[in-house]
Amino acid sequence: MASIEIKDIKNNVVGSMDLSARFSMDGKGALMHEAVVSYLANQRQGTHATKTKGLVSGGGKKPWKQKHTGRARAGSSRSPLWRGGGTVFGPQPRDYSYELPKTARRTALFAAFSRKIKDGEVLVIEGIKFEEPRTKEMVSILKNLGLAGGSTLLIVSEVDRPVVLSARNIPGVSVVCAKDLNIYEVVSHTKVLVTKSAMEVLEARPI
Questions:
Q1: N or C end of the chain, less CB within 10 A?
Q2: Which residue stretches of the chain have pLDDT < 50?
Q3: Rounded (10°) angle between helices 29-43 and 102-118
Q4: Which domains does the chain have, with CATH numbers?
Q5: Hey, CA dihedral for 72, 75, 80, 82, is it positive or negative?
């Protein structure tokens, strides 16, 4: 069973935490990729649309008679062959979303988290609390932990408005609740800062 250090906001080691096997997964690269692709596909609105010749306005009258003009036959001035005509096989509104099995999604999430831990990109802190929003204090904490100026994901156990407001204006920093964590947020940030209570929530999540 692996363990990880717990630090305070001044980067002093104050303890350690034993991690279950879910935080020691190896491989799963293909599953992680599929989970990220699924997440991004589910974010697409799919509202793109082009007009076919039946949707373009005008073109109701036959441009000229069928025969004896010396010109090619034409039934509409909104043919795809004409300037201003409709689009052939253009994109139409569609739903891109698809779901992976819950077990696959959860396994991919913990596999990504395990890789972050293995690479030394996860920091566990005892806790973080503000009475009111203090962006300067948040910047100071990140600087103490060696996370200033980078892409950092802060994982908390529950929504804490002062913490969220303190972090949201810092470039590259995102805040998420442990119960809402997904694989894309893990892999899209260079470092992960997680509170001890949030780690306990992650430990309790089913897999």
A1: N
A2: none
A3: 120
A4: 3-44+99-204 (3.40.1370.10), 46-95 (no CATH)
A5: positive
